[in-house]
Task: structure prediction
Amino acid sequence: MRDLFLLALLPIMLYAMVQRPFIAVGMWVWTALFFPNGWVYGMAGHIRYNLLFTAVAILGYLAWKHKPKVQLGMIGSFVLLFFLWTCISTMTTIAPPEVSFEYLTRFFKVVMLFVFVALTIQDKLHVDFVLWCLVLSVGFYADLEALKFLASGGGHNIAGMPGHVLGDRNELSLAFVMTLPVCYYLLGEYGKQSKALRLGLLGTMALLVFGVIGTQSRGGFVALAALGAYLYIKSDRKVLLTFLIIGLVAALIPFISHDYTNRIDTIGAADEDASFMGRVVAWKLSFIMAMKHPFFGGGFKSLEYFPVWTELSRDFFSYPWFYTGHAVPNTTVGRAAHSVYFQVMGEQGFGGLFLYLCCLASAFFKAGSIARRAKRAGAPQWLRTMATMIQLSIFAFALGGAALSFAYVDLIFCLFGLVLVIEKRLLPATLAAMHAAPQPAGGAGIQPSGTATPAPLQPVPARTASASASTIAVQHV
Result:
């Protein structure tokens, strides 16, 4: 049934994408994060939806007569420089070349998504559509899995689909956390227009939280707690958030298993947790690889290549200050870096790590700067909330990604592109529209800072001869 439904919708979606390239970009995001092939069978399961929608987005942009001005800005420059850096690291890889080139190809597709978000998305409607596509992919999966988790009384273990970019439960958990601020923004914008949308978004936010608990991911829990604290600080609705947090905590308690509670307790004694110390071992080996190849690193997936893992393990005790407790490298198989920062450090070297951190930092601080500028200028509330919530999503990634090999995911680079669009298009257009708005009668206006703008002095028109004669006649009578 799902096959027929999707096949019936496909021509309609393609027609809409051809007419409006921003729809194609939004569907590009949706297919990247939703993985429709995992939901359908038969002929519908053999269609490469992501490739199809990507091709439509690219062709639609090329056929666009009035293309917007290309503006890379600081964020775009860092992203493209980082991609060029990964190209060089792939050419000098110490991993099997076919593996590194495969992952370079995947990352190229992610960078293409960033580029076409920056090229195609122009206004608030476009940004909102992309954010809705994000919620209808990650949020929909969270709704479905969290309902199973609740129906089973907390017994259902939530994990991603095999072969999906969010297949790992820890990465899926972080994606759930990153989607929460997006739902919060959409709730503020569309919740007042429709009761159904308001209830749907509130329910999705609650189920996203349950979804994080259902994955039993410690990293997801830490990111969720930090996001909640940061959201509370940034929000203008602290009373509402207080009641929501209290209600969610009360609702969560019956579904948190004893095993998950024990896993959370190990956060306070991480040096005694074998699983966590195994990650620290992988971090140390990534650092050793960066020391051996400081400029361009070992290339994509080099740490997981067992001969490289074994070679690096020989220098494991060369840096005694890098504490790993009693943990030592696995002698049978290589492991992932389990940290976006150590992953990039090992695979792309210290230079690549610097560029990656520049991408993260520039997007994070630029989003905060946009929110502050919009507030000072008296811009509409939606602009400030949009920038702040995207900043919170980036914050969640930066924190939760510290324990995950999740550096090149589509989601974070899509958010980078949206910050660039808000900076270069939405903010200037909004401020220009405010300045071009008609002034109140009399010419006086109020500046965004609240200072009154005096009306300009007008020259007094000369009295005409007829007016003078009329005045004399009245005086004579």
Remarks:
- The two ends are 94 Å apart (CA to CA).
- Strands lie at 445-446, 452-453.
